[in-house]
Amino acid sequence: MGRKKETHTGPPRKIREFVESASMAILVAIGLKVFLVEAFQIPTPSMQPTLMGCKEAQVFDRILVDKACYLVREPKRWDVVVFRYPLKRNQDYVKRLVGMPGDHLRVEAGDLYNIQKNGNKPSTWKILRKPSGVQAGLWRSLFQARDENAKDAFESRAGEWEFQDAQLRGRDQGSGARVSFLPPAGLTNAYWHGYPSPIREKIVAQIGNAGLGNHPPHYVGDLAWSLRLDLSKDTQTFWLQQKQKPRGQRTRRFRFEIKRKAKGLYAQISRAEVRGNRVILGTEKTVGIDLPDPSELEIRFEHRDGLLEAWVGSQKVGSLSTVLPRPNPLESLFLEMGCKGGEVSISELELKRDLYYTKDGVEGKTIDVPEGHYFMMGDNTQASEDSRLWRSLTLGIDKDGKICPPSDRAVKTWTGNMRGGTFYIGNPIDPDENPILVTMKNRIVFADLFGELHVLKGSPEDFSKTLEAAPPKWAPFVPQEFVVGRAFARFWPANPFGVFRLGLIR
């Protein structure tokens, strides 16, 4: 019998195993991307400084998005959400979810309110207060005692005050000691607040100190103080306060005090309406706690979203509501510290402000969020194309292929995002601008809901007439099925010697 000839019907075993393993790895990676976690890059400044897309400093965060979380729970207010842009559905956006189904939302004086309708009775304005974990990530630094020009923040009003080696020292010379506190960064919603120093310098160099574009500055009354306090044995009282006057209303004073008692100390917070330095009778409310008499006190004092709170060390002094029946923007804001008797030493002083929601596109509007939909806003509303500003546009063409309103004359129509209506003259343009008017060729480039580009015949005059006949419509809401996932972490840039942006997103 002859020997049977061996035949090779497939690749060697090791090659086959490698191909199988690689194929499985690719399938797992695709599965993770589709169903669990996906990475995104932030291209714009709309969520700064929470998420950076800063062309001035060339810092563009990379984030991880949990695509499975909304399979087991509904999206929550204040989540940072990735979603498909309803007016260009091949494009993903990242914003903060601020409006829930059924909300009657208002943007006023930098805060968000839900209007509760009471039949024939006046509506109730309920402030939407951010959870403490979310708020911790939104404070923007205005002042730190180690800043180069920190001493310029203080002006003595009474007694003797000295700022040296990042410490502020005050002495009562017989009639109390007072010092006003105005951070060089100001107390308004300047665009560049809250950025790390190298990035801040580049932003200021590009856009200036005042702000961005035509946005007027607004006083921000939501502030967080933190400091270490050393009292001499003969100091009777230390206090810090902020006075703020809403437009058309009385001046309000929010105050933190430490008072010396026969045994130990007493800490309290108070709110009151004042005329000058006098409290208007019947308007003051206080809450406080007894303290031991340590040599040094660590203090936090916060006013945020209609709530006044303070802590001494780990002990909470108390909480007071400061919500007004109807909010108005501030006309003035004044900060002050002082003591009665003895000396005080203040170190590690830091002041932060909350973000300030601007009203572009929603001035005077109550936003009624329909069921199954959400309202989205950027943390940086001075530079955010979000739900406040989204508009849809429908264009048609007639039988000759010329642009026309979507009327009986139109033989075909397309709907897409209306942002700008930019004239193309050969310079680079924002890819989100839509439509683009190519004047030298009498053509209009229009991207529809699915990102497909259409080149339509028409001059700028034809476009203007079409807009007059069929104006853009406000289209602010994101359907629930368009939500992709929740952004939960930044993983890049990660240079320990430069820009370091690793961290969880709140």
Mind explaining what this structure looks like?
This protein has 506 residues and is mostly beta strands. The chain has three domains: 13-99 and 484-504, Umud Fragment, subunit A (Ribbon), CATH 2.10.109; 142-189 and 205-353, Sandwich (Jelly Rolls); 391-475, no CATH class. Helices cover 11% and strands 43% of the residues. Strands 1, 4, 5, 6, 27, 36, 37 and 38 form an eight-stranded antiparallel beta sheet that branches. The longest helix has 24 residues, at 13-36. The N and C termini lie far apart (79 Å).
- The structural domain count equals 3
Q: Any idea what the CATH superfamily of the largest domain is called?
A: Exo-inulinase, domain 1
- How many strands in all? 38
CATH architecture of the largest domain: Sandwich
Instruction: Fill in the CATH topology of the largest domain.
Output: Jelly Rolls
The helicity comes to 10-25%
Portion in beta strands: 35-45%
The count of helical stretches stands at 5
Structural class: mainly beta
Low-pLDDT ranges: none
Shape: elongated
Question: Can you give the mean pLDDT?
Answer: 89
Distance between the termini: 79 Å
How can the largest sheet be summarized? 8 strands, antiparallel
Rg to the nearest angstrom? Answer: 29 Å
What is the C-level CATH assignment of the largest domain?
A: Mainly Beta
Notable features of this structure?
506 residues; mainly beta; Umud Fragment, subunit A; 3 domains; eight-stranded antiparallel β-sheet; 38 strands
